[in-house]
Known about the structure:
Blueprint: H1 3-6, E1 17-19, H2 25-31, H3 36-42, E2 44-48, H4 50-58, E3 63-69, H5 76-87, E4 91-95, H6 97-104, E5 112-117, E6 133-138, H7 143-156, E7 160-164, H8 173-179, E8 188-191, H9 193-203, E9 206-210, E10 216-217, E11 228-232, H10 241-244, E12 249-252, H11 264-275, H12 277-285
Parallel strand pairs: 1-4, 3-4, 6-7, 6-11, 7-8, 9-11, 9-12, 10-12
Antiparallel strand pairs: 2-5, 3-5
Helix pairs in contact: 2-6, 7-8, 7-11
Amino acid sequence: MTEDRYHAGPRRVGQVKEITSLANPIVKDIKALSQKKTRDETRTFMAEGLKLVIDAIELGWAIRTLVYAKSAKGKPLVEQIAARTIASGGLVLEVTEKVLSAITRRDNPQMVVGIFDQRWSALNDIHPKANETWVALDRVRDPGNLGTIIRTADAAGASGVILVGDCTDPFSMETVRATMGSLFAVPLIKTQADEFLRWKKGSGAQVVATHLAGAVDYRVIDYARRPVVLLMGNEQSGLPEDLARQADALARIPQTGRADSLNLAIATAVMLFEARRHLLSLDEAK
């Protein structure tokens, strides 16, 4: 898929292109964003919902294409976002609900969809500072887990999420939905295990990993001593030994029920809010 096809059709300032056919090449290109290969090639992704689109634009994300249903035409916020999209050089499409359902793969789709440029941060540009907490995820595979973790990282005030190894795509439709807009507020980094370990040595951060063999109660670790990286393992296999050995602390979340483990997103939330408890308490007191 080429850049020209993505911006096909009339581009006069103030013009909105109306589309009613599922066979339209622009629609086909947008539908193809459900495939990781296409997202990787175009370095774009889809976000659904007026609030998400507004939040993304307000946070400085570059919008390529705005798509809205005919029934949303004339609504003030939709008109404002359409004008901003055109002013920034993006394409605005007014489509039927049938077309919108095909694009989003939903029977009852949101009335507004935005196509945005992906945004990644570089690991070597990350220099953790005092009171910062980062989340590092080793080979996270479930889109719902990743989306929930990004949303939780945002809620807890974490500085970003580091994806280590072969992780699920944070820009997939399922993950973006699960973030509930937090994707646009949380920096993302992707790296490999060896690169992560090299970075860790010079980062000055304390790496706290959860592990079934962990001997330290996660509640007694001093998270205020220096910046923290919470290292969480794969849903099925947990952390590999090469990563676990390099952690500064192997923590365990005590459990008394019959369940032998916690869901990854839940475990990450427990660790995040404990690691930032002293900071969240300070914020509440202000």
